[in-house]
Queue: 3 jobs
Job 1
Amino acid sequence: MKRPVLCLSTVCAVFIVWTMFSVPWCSSHPLEGGTDSPQLRLVEEFDRFKLGFSWHNMSCAVCKAIFATLDIALLSDSNMERVARALGEACVRLHLAEAQVCREITELFRDDVIRALQESFLWPSEACAVLVGPTCGHFDIYAPWNVSLPRVPKPPVKPPTPPKPGSPQSRILFLTDIHWDAEYAEGSLVDCKMPLCCRNDSGRASWKHTGAGYWGTYGDCDLPLRTVENLLQNVAKSGPWDWVYWTGDIPAHNIWSQTRAQQLNELVTITRLIHKHLGPNVTVYPAVGNHESTPVNSFPPPFIHGNRSSRWLYDTMAEEWAPWLPKEALETIRRGGFYTVEVERGLRVVSLNMNFCARENYWLMVNSTDPAGQLQWLINILQESENKGEKVHIIGHIPPGLCLKSWSWNYYHIVNRYESTITGQFFGHTHVDEFQMFYDEDTLTRPLSVAFIAPSVTTYVNLNPGYRVYYMDGNYPGSSRMVLDHETFILNLTLANNQPSKPDPNPSWTLLYRASEAYGLSTLFPSDMDALIKVMKNDDHVFQRFWYLFHKGHVSKPCTDTCKTSLICLLHSGRYDLLTQCDVLHGDKHSVKKTMC
């Protein structure tokens, strides 16, 4: 049975703390091999008693003593090595993943996770508050916090109006979640035991099974480079483009075996391919995805220095993206992976590093209060734009409704305050075609903004490759700069891989749908998207069309009953605390939301 390890960084953090208590910290001898090691005996005890163990059986004094000792023990490199080895064995024995994945991922995550635990404020009273109870301490790692808004009155809100017929429009190419797999192998196993298949090490498909296709495969597989390049060749012919938004996630999902050199090679390769095919006259505005780093989701805030910082990644991004971005933008990229640029007179783009809001980013255990000061910086940019009469587009990878609660709440508050300035929000990450609504904070009934979430380039999981085109109110005085319409294009893998004798050497990327035609909308303003949700609630035919397009035209399971109500709830929820009210986050077996972390 295949075990998901997409979010093993979180599992690693939990297991590191758990396994440490069975390690004989006062001994300098290495762990004994075999099944008689104390770590594996502890695993067996957990297996035998299941839920019999409880931290609440421990006294507060003992708990704090353990964590105080642990704090000191983690300063020893030899102890870190022993923890990693025990962690890998525990992962294997609990069948969290294949043995190779368990051991490689614990080795990869070991240093960063332990360093984050060392520098966090979880020791010892916070940890014991979680494990023993609030009488033993106060847990405030993700405590509420607020950014400061300027004491400038919010301008009167003027509802947007559709542009006059014949008004200029901007045509924007949007790419996200490419996930190029350098080890993709045609004919390899599609249904392997590893978390990512269709690779050189997946094994060859037998006559009983269909092997990985030439252009890509439905399943737990990413894309070969030839498919990415074929996409870029096609979009180059489909121009002209006014500009491009590209919201990250370049590497494949083999998160247990990645190196910095590989991540940088993939960043450089894809960046240069985009530049090569789109040419020097098309500006690309990138954003940082959660897969760009290794370990995945590891994005230390700027107060982490040295080899564990993200400078190795940000510096390369600045170098490779320099043809598209001005010097000032490159400076903030090097500091924290975010930036702002004037796109045209009257329009500015802000590219956020959404890893600073991600619960999977274990560095936020150290301090989750507005990491890198990014939201306060955003407020300053928005206030300056409001003063100048600029409109602002925000791009990023992870949608704000999936962020940590306080970060998401503050972002929602900012969008409310600057609703007349922020005229577009564009994200990726989930790999499917959806959106999140923003409403007024007082009543949560007046729609005021939409976060559009575009489908992925990759097939992961069980999807057609795809990309998005946005049509914006264009460059003229008084333009709303809002989204008027969008199109989604796909590569139909069933057709591309299965010509009579061999794969199509020049496959077609075809229009899957145009939003205005599919849903009968004149514009895609917030009021239009809110009205669409209401229609989907009452008209199942419209909802099922949305569900088909949600998966880029390749649906494996129907969505009815709880699945439907959960998805509609998610569309309403641009803020995390609103999203938590959806059944999908309460263990519903028909969950439609699986974060592609």
Job 2
Amino acid sequence: MDLVGAVKLFLLCSLLWLSAVTSCQGKENSSEYRYPFIRRASSFSSSSPSASLSGSHNTYDYIIVGGGTAGCPLAATLSQNFSVLLLERGGAPFDNVNVSYLKNFHISLADTSPTSASQVFISTDGVFNSRAKVLGGGTCINAGFYTRASTRYIEEAGWDAKLVNESYPWIERQIVQQPKLAPWQKALRDGLLEVGISPFNGFTFDHLYGTKVGGTIFDEFGKRHTAADLLAEGNPEKLSVLIYAKVQKIMFNTTAKRPKAVGVIFKDENGNQHQAFLTKRRGSEIILSCGAIGSPQMLMLSGIGPKAELKKFNISVVLNNRFVGTGLSDNPLNTVFVPTNRPVEQSLIQTVGITKRGVYIEASSGFGQSSDSIRYDHGMMSAEIGQLSTIPPRQRTAQAIRDYAAGKQFLPHEAFMGGFILEKIASPFSKGHLKLINTNVDDNPSITFNYFSHPYDLQRCVEGIRMMEKIVRTQHFMNYTQCDDETLDKLLNMSVKANINLVPKHTNDTKSMEQFCKDTVITIWHYHGGCHVGKVVDHKYKVLGVHGLRVIDGSTFRESPGTNPQATVMMMGR
């Protein structure tokens, strides 16, 4: 090879090497966020590529507030034809091991650090609860169960059945799987059928009376897939996603007869304030997808809500609507612990019994023991996440949790072997409300659910506890736990010290059962309402009395769909 040829070869190799290094560096820098259109809020500027599509700085056809269960599929879908800005107050889930793996399920809920994927709140009822604070929303911190809404629910919501049936599969193809049924879930399945919760509907996404196995967003390796994964379907040329973008309020043009939403004010991770505006295109909108707590809170902080409440905090009234924040509901959950004489494989919800009385029976078992895990816990029922179900709600304090954490290290390992049977009350008649406590969007508002304030909810809880007692006594469960009476009594006595509730001894005493329901009520995180159709939004989810503003999330629901709402909230966004 001559000298000229050697130089050319050297230059070519150098160029290829530099190209490879640049490519690798680019991938490394974007790995945390996975997609190039996801950036930190501090990167927002007038030179933003997505912002300039309309020919005007920082303007978009759609601005979506809340990158959660509804917001992600909504943004991906709209970006096919329009410029979209999606603003999420939390970070990205992709490299967060507490979000990503089933074995760490409880840790993300127990994490109270500023970068946590969840934000704890305690309702005025005394029940600990959580809000998502991460791209992907509740799909990043839930138990993973996936099931569609019933046909009745879809009809009553007035949704287009054809569009619904096209939207569910779009989600399922990307993030949903059939679970590998854990032994505890098999025991529940057989126990449900033995006590007459039939027929067995096998594995199905559909909401059907009887016993079924639902879908899961955890894959065979225990890795979680979330609504954030649906952003892969977005158009990168038209979609911009900002994380750590805390929207402070919606801006309105109030010069016309009816106020019109025109933009939002948000702060980045450094506390710097920014503004983003809608384009002049007819039909451009701001869409709230902040969830049942965040959306009514954001409306009130922006001047839409009960006039007297807004004036307490010197918030300029854009629209007086006394229904904002009302009709809030949470599905009460009560559990019983079933000890075993050997370790049990960890499982979250896979099997469900659906009764016509609106009592749903589910189960969880085992606990995660990763190197980062809390030493001993009860998974979904961990006291670390406030599920102190032997302590009446008003006595569930931060100190009670600390005392539990300190004391449990002295408990025998056997006290933590076993699992739970859970009962959830569907469509609760008990209603609550949400009120502001200040104008800081980072703070939780005051939230009241009024669990069991309606006698029908309490009646159904008693029925559910009695049903769970029957299941525990079925041959299938007795065979699985392999406990004789003496061993069972010994394990129950140890379990009492572990702050977990057990099957009551006098289930024929209605009054004591009602008290048991009240004292052991916890949450399964399916709260909804606060922006009801017909009161806050119309049947197309446009906010009543203003232009250019919608709400697309569970705050519009009068009841929680299916046995878990995540499928329907994602479908709604799509």
Job 3
Amino acid sequence: MSTDSTQPHTPSHEVAVRPLPSAANQWKRAALMARVAPEFRETVSDDSEDEVDTKKQIKYGSGFQAAKAIIHEYCDYTTIHGIRYLGEKKRPLLERLFWISVLVLSVFTCVKLTLNIWDKWNNNPVIVSFAEKSTPVWQIPFPAVTVCPETKTRRDVFNFTDAYHQVRDFQTNVSGIVDLTDKQKGIYGAVSQVCEPHLHDITLGNKTRRGMEIIDALTEVSPHFDDTYLNCKWRNSPVKCSDIFHKFVTEDGVCYSFNSLSPAEIFRAEGIIPDFIFREENRLSMDWNVEDGYSASADTSPYPNRVLGPGARAGLYLFMGGAEIDFDDMCRGPVQGFKILLHTPGDVAQVSKQYFRIPFDQEVLISIRPKIITTSDGLKHYEPNRRQCYFQKERDLRYFNIYSQSNCELECLANFTLTKCGCVKFNMPRNVNMPVCGDANLKCYNQAEDELLLREFTQGLINAGENTRGETECNCLPSCTSIAYEAEISQADFDYKTVINTDSPEGKEEQAKRQGMKMSRVSIFFKEAQFLTSRRSELYGTTDFLANCGGLLGLFMGVSMLSIVELIYFCTVRLISNLRMRRKTRKELLKAVNKDA
């Protein structure tokens, strides 16, 4: 019997039961079926062999194969230079290494140069340059002229030198010395606040005091206005000095200012207190503001005043005097005369910061050269710390309507002094509820000013950038439109007695009236008819930044905006489309396999 007879025989009409194929075998079988599908042949009939392999891997391959095929597909179609050589199949390893090195070097150089551009755009976005054309002087206001006499008292009313020695001797128990009366103490305490700081070694009075008391006391003992401001001219026309000069309170005491805005326009409602209101101005500065200048409808005599041209005849002329008997070397030192400050009409005068000294028996000519910095509208969307200035509506001060660096610093000093000493100096902005420092707090507010300067310096140094001022607690950046009045001064001896005609009765009367007085003559005017304006503008705007970056990307990598869109397209739309197609194909093949099985 043969061996075949011993094997079990399966009848021809029975079907053998086979084990189910594995999942991998199912996919292989599905792929085999798809290869012979006529629909697929029609789809790839026009493609190259590499493209057919890529599409097959995306549709039917494993996840890794599909991802690799998608990368190859991007390399084949991208417009970025050098990428397609990395994606080419069957390329020698040496070629691939060469293109990888070139691509890495290009990317590194491009990134480094782009970071340099970013640094300039981020840290140096602003450039200050001259404007395209010059500006005539009649487009800006004449400076506010604040005059403060060095003589603080009339000796026949109050002798500060004698009072100082009397107080010191009385406190040191010198025999035969009596104390000052209450009124004299009040005047002494008020005058001490405008005298030199070294005289504050004597403590007298209270720590706080009503501000109006101090101002009234200073006004009571100060030289009379008509004895100080003898003759005035504006634009070569004689005017009464009392018509153009108005009383203002500064840290130097009672001063008088020409062409300054009224306190009602300078201060907000909270800062308008009786201590600062000495006049009611009928006119308002409707035709002028700091940022826009004069309106087109402004006439030749607007408010604040402006000149129509350069030269002494078009400016301000002052003839001032002082009685020698009232000179007090103890209070202000051995220098007599006047302090003159030129400032913007909207600023509160701070005489101690910068001033010109006008000595007696001198004629002084002050020729002004304006210095104006404006800011282009293209910088408005920048942060103030980047452009290093504030527009008027960006920074609101508590007490001032008009923002300027000077007003901001004065308000910050007032706040710091209030925190440090519990009071403010009589000239500082405040509301009606803030206490004013009395005679016993003179040292405190002087020390507070020094401490604030040191704190601002330290904070600014710590936070300073490469080309930017460091942010501080006050953070008083300049105004984006600012006006400064730089001056050139010349002077000569002035013998006023020679101009008085002693032969006439009027001349003799004038000479007798001016006996024992010293005189000064001052002329303030613009030097030139036009001046150059500086302008802040964008050094690297957004357009410049994009153009420079695009140029580098195009130079080193051939990248354009469409290349970036293309990359986004392959990472989103194309990827989603391929995944959906892959999922759909798998579902169809699973149905076909199940149906065939």
